[in-house]
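pinging the channel bc i need a second pair of eyes. not urgent but kinda urgent?? the chain im working w is below, pasted from the shared doc
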Amino acid sequence: MRMTNPHVSLTLLIAMAMSLASFGADWEQELTPLKPGEFAPLRPVEAHYRFGWEKFVAADAQFKVVALTNQLLEVQGTAQSDGFVRTLWRFDLQHTSWRDAGFRPQGFTQTEIYKRKTVKTRVGFGQSGLIRNNEITPLAESSETKTYPVANACDPFSAYLLMRSQPLRVGDRYRLLVYPGLHLYLAELNVIGAETIKVEQVPRVAIKLSLGLQQVTDQMSLVPYGKFKRATVWLSDDQERIPLKAEADIFVGAVWAELHRAEYSK
């Protein structure tokens, strides 16, 4: 997660960061199909995370997954900078997103509040592509609409749900287009294997993954994402496969996220 761009922070929560790879001109042909695997779906859950920058606790976030119907899932999320870091960087986030039973995204709305501006984002996903509208205040009520002609992009949480449903065998590799709300990225995830880590000082068996990011330009070519270096994500190796921990090396230094608690609906 990055201190000055919460979109990367969101990508790291629901488990997305990466080790850069190079692709040929036909990289779009190498994307992982948006087809759910056979692993059991995530149960409705309310999860709380703590985020850090170097040794500082930097932010808290809460995410709630709700089954609206048999065909529609909603995610409600809030986040806010905390402690010493908040004196340097005021940030508050509200996020709501929707996806169907096949984990295909329907859209999301997001409000980011900083010390001197507020950014409201609305994104819709469709068969012909995705469309995003940004409103920034008080910059003369600035508004911008942008369209991407891609029908196979995911929002971060849809990408996470799709990935957790896969076999996740050692050596497996997955490539997805991910759109957190500002830029389009090609995400590559590689399954490293099982590892025992400590979460809230409790040993947990986890599935370790490395992630890599490249930015997709308006011309659909790939360029390195210079503000991001490398990251690792751990999912619980159980029936939930919930993100337990993430660590990333970015342009402001080392950042991390860790699950504080998770409460599942019966």
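so Residues 14 and 157 are 5 Å apart (CA to CA). and The first strand starts at residue 45 and ends at 53. — does that match what u expected or am i reading it wrong
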